[in-house]
Amino acid sequence: xxxxxxxxxxxxxxxxxxxxxxxxxxxxxxxxxxxxxxxxxxxxxxxxxxxxxxxxxxxxxxxxxxxxxxxxxxxxxxxxxxxxxxxxxxxxxxxxxxxxxxxxxxxxxxxxxxxxxxxxxxxxxxxxxxxxxxxxxxxxxxxxxxxxxxxxxxxxxxxxxxxxxxxxxxxxxxxxxxxxxxxxxxxxxxxxxxxxxxxxxxxxxxxxxxxxxxxxxxxxxxxxxxxxxxxxxxxxxxxxxxxxxxxxxxxxxxxxxxxxxxxxxxxxxxxxxxxxxxxxxxxxxxxxxxxxx
Length: 293
Description:
- By secondary structure, the protein is of the alpha+beta class.
- It contains nine helices and eleven strands.
- Helices cover about 35% and strands about 10% of the residues.
- The model is unreliable at about 100-105, about 210-220 and about 245-293 (pLDDT under 50).
């Protein structure tokens, strides 16, 4: 920046690579999405270390610097993607409780807001982690994780709906998504620095670099069903034997339907259906806090 006798001016880098909205519309590979998350995590690590929370992570605020192909070795082709985090218009110091613009309203973009941000609670770096999780899901699938008829409907899903499942072809990144979008702040990745360390342990082509679950954890549900069947079979066999008179002197009582246990669903119960609606406006919006919804 600088000044002249007539005016003051601010000089900023021109980023000719467009924003993330365009790249999502064009389609991203899982590898490209992972590279972008790594780069934005690095930017947030610097921001959070300085004690600042961005509060408005979304595709429109992620721009791209074009790196000439000639400057990138063939073995590092992915490095041609260079994401830049922009727009700190509503960024605040983490230790300042200034997320309320005025009574009953919060700042942010509804489709990317964390539960605590929607509730009007104190915002920390974990809120940026949640928004980054929403961004990861959108990059991998092309759609937002939560969609609805209204801002309030989307906000309610952020508060109550479970973390959505990724498609099978990118399900290997589900553990990462779960840690970014955990509803409880204490269960979420703490900040950009912690995320950078976690991402370093992940091979984007294989997922988390952790030991596979044990046989019992992997097949817990199946084992439980088998155990239930065995216990039921033993119980039925014992009940049948107990009805036999000593020395088989009398006939075995006939089977009676009255002994069956029948489980019925409540009258009128129906399966809910999810509706796909256009995403919320990308522009930063004011929305009522959850206690006013």
